[in-house]
Amino acid sequence: MATPKTASQSRTGFLSPAWLKTSGDGWTLLLMIALVCVVLVLISGQAQTNLTILQVAWQQNIQLLLDGLFIGAIFALAAYGLALVWGVMNVKNLCQGEYVIMGGYIAYYLYESGIHPFFGLPIAIVFMFGFGWAIYVLVIRRVIDRDLFTSLLATFGIAIVLQQGLNLIFGPEVQTARSGLPTATVTLGGGAFTFAWIKLTAFLMCGALALAVVIFMKRSRMGQAIRATAQDARAARVMGIDTDRVYAFTYSLNAAICGAAGVLIAMIWVIQPFYGITHSIRSFVIVTAAGFGNLPGVIMAGLGLGVAEQYSGFVLGADFQQATVVGMLLLVLIWRQIIENKHRRVVE
Amino acid sequence: MIGRRIEKPGCLALAVFGVIAPMVFPAYVQQIAMLWIMIVFALTWDTMGGQMGYNSLGNIFFFGAGMYIAAVCQIWPWYDVGQYTDPSGILTTSFTPDQYFLGLALGVVLAALGSVVLAVVFGLIVFGLRGPYFAIGTLGLAIAAGELIGAWDWVGGGGGIRLPVFPSGTDADPLFRVPFGDIQSADLQGVFFYWTCFALAVLTFLFLRWLYRTRFGLMLNAIRDDEAKAEALGVRTQLYKTVAWSISAFFLGISGALFGNIIGFMEPLEVAFPTVTFGIFMVLMALLGGKGTLWGPVIGATLFHIIKEVTWTHLLGWQWVVLGLLIVVTVVFFQQGIVGWLQEKRPEWFGIEVDRGTAGQRVDAAAADGLDAVLDTGEDAAGEGVR
Q1: What ipTM was reported for this prediction?
Q2: Domain that residue A259 falls in
Q3: What pTM was computed for the model?
Q4: Is residue A171 part of a domain?
């Protein structure tokens, strides 16, 4: 059957020459390759030295992998919260990372007052739940029905308020909440890597939290209401579900999850008032790569991002760690575009 | 049609203010020069966000790109850029007036053209993204650019570049000394860049005013209203989107080149690619004034800049919190902006004739909306009852 020529297929010109059109997403691929080449040329000398180190002292790989997996699990937890809000309310929450950092500062505050940061976990969950509810009532409720850019910009505004507020209260220094758990140095085949017990503990806590949330979503009445609202808000309302309350609960639950993730981050890594935006971007990368309602995907993407970040931080230098996260965002968006274009062609 | 009638006097008043401002308020020349740059920010953002419906959070990318291109062009013909930007400062440099102005002219032109090239190249990537993905993608682009430039030692890395010093009053070109008499070098620099910024703002305004009245402006509005339909009707959306972004980039690149020279020093995160300050200011100013209108961005930028300059220093560090609150309040409660609000309240001022028939229909529609709202609350109440 002869398919009719569509406008976009027949159109060739300066911006879309035929050879690129026909060879798939030629432009996008060419540009991706060009960008990667530029980056590699810029950093080649240092990167090669670091790659050699990885080959000679192979124990370093274990270190990077472990650190990446431990931190990636926490990224996945925060991203699951974003997937929830995105999927249920269609709000792209750009202050996700700020909630994480707020949770981190709760743990740090307790640590400074002489209380063990583990207690920060329940406190952060309760506090951030209340905080999320307040933000929902004040702002989010008014932007849910509006166009998507409105919610994006409104949450970006909240993000600026929160990061600057934290900066005024705690100052711009990089902080960490020490748990006091021991760190072991493991010797293996002539080399060594360090293994911090707090990282394993945080990993297990993270898993337990994720499990609790999943069970809550599957079993509890509210969890069912949330899933019903995600499927069809109008039908849910007809069935007697108070969707406004479901939205409020979902948003608060997301804030609580982020707060808990932040406590864990403060214990195994560092926090700073302006690190929030990177955490937001991480969550976006993970959710965009995995799609929402896809828990295994979110976990895999989170762990993958954690490992990728550790490796690029080591190979390219710490300067590039944030650039890596943002670069991943661009790659994921381009990849998504390619998939969509393929889909469009199939539909055509 | 008060709108039409006050437009000409409005233009005239702004032009007169722009011309006499450096003589009347010599102490505020730099602040008023910043006002013109802010107006350029808001106008160019609105070309994309307001007229075309593509809300970019990363337009500041071209500002920084223009700044860096201009800086390199000002240095490169006379010194080795790598040595010039070396943090140890081994190289002692001085620029003759001829070298300075030639470099500046070259820098401004290449900043504009380079930004256009970047807009075309990155347009191929980002214009496949729609809605919020576009906003996040462009934001990522601007952040990534800042981070990568910060790691690039040839242009000074995170330490930045200090730009050539403006030639001192004694040996400056007599051409510039004649109109201003015997003034000091720093003042001369202020006045020189004041006029260039003013010229840029006027040029941007007049160009966009003309552009929005052409078929091209209609095409942009068609893309905003329904891109799929526009494409189906044969509008070459990708081409129009790229050209619109290039126009934004052209003027933003020049503004970046000028701003870098006004400040005299640039570094990647705070000055060149400030996503959370200038990058978000442009969105806020356009929204505040009324997006999708020609005068909205101008009014919004003026108002915002005045408020910012008057209150900023009195807020003792809380100004950024206030900025965030201002964004939230504007977006949530006042999204149509000042001009949009006026258009709604006084359509006759803008020459919009409200047909009685449609007005009646609108009342009916409003009544239906009200009924819907009643039904909705009824449903909600029922929901509560059941629960």
Answers
A1: 0.78
A2: 70-186+193-347
A3: 0.81
A4: yes
